[in-house]
Amino acid sequence: MAEIICVIGNKGGTGKTTVSHMLCQGFGLLGQRSACVLTDLGREPLAAEGRRYLTADARSREVLAKVMDKLRGLEGWMGVIDGGANRTDMDRHLYKLADLVLLPFRDSHEDMRTVVRDLEMFPRAWALPTQWPTNPWAREAADRSVTQLLGPWQQRILEPVCAVSSSKLLLQKHMPETLPTPLSNACRRLARQVLDLMDLAYDDVADMEEESREQACAATGVAPPEHYEPMPLAAAA
Ligand SMILES: Nc1ncnc2c1ncn2[C@@H]1O[C@H](COP(=O)(O)OP(=O)(O)OP(=O)(O)O)[C@@H](O)[C@H]1O
Ligand SMILES: [Mg+2]
Q: Domain ranges in the chain?
């Protein structure tokens, strides 16, 4: 029986689709078979060719039920269901089907307020910071916003997926044959985090040096300006 991971949340543009594909790509890099399942009526399916995972089009509830049946029969597979924004009923449906639920959110107070609502509605779900700033001072401000707005949910917040501009390659209808190393590393890091959460073993090919979170989200060597003062929280609100 496949493990089912749902990537959902009410807010649009938080990175649900990108996270779903990064996760599947990362699973592939760790030797794990997976399928990325599209449920968003407003999006078109992406070709599986060249990916390390299958793609499935389950934009109707009937097809979704069939895809879920199929996945359930696939021992050792991972099924990643990409949700769509503003679909609370669908999110509730997917939540019930899932072994693990991810709620991506960006460095924005609006995203954080929305993810609080979703964390309350979905008590088993994990919040996943996405498109996280890569320069140190922006990251510091982002982390402070998380502390301020998501303090009580700190135990349910995962390590961030950093902003990686090449992540958009995964959302091309046809993916390029090779992907940039920073993207592959980010995919692997996300997949590892999820497999660890689910207590699942994986082949960890040691072709990536262990990175600390700071290195993972490292800036391009840009240091904060000399007289940089972090933005006061009140001004960030
Ligand atoms: N880690 C990332 N680094 C850089 N850009 C990202 C990252 N994740 C997402 N993006 C960009 O942010 C935008 C929104 O991402 P995505 O389509 O994955 O969000 P979504 O939650 O699926 O949106 P929707 O609610 O419309 O389904 C896209 O342009 C995508 O390329
Ligand atoms: Mg999407």
A: 3-236
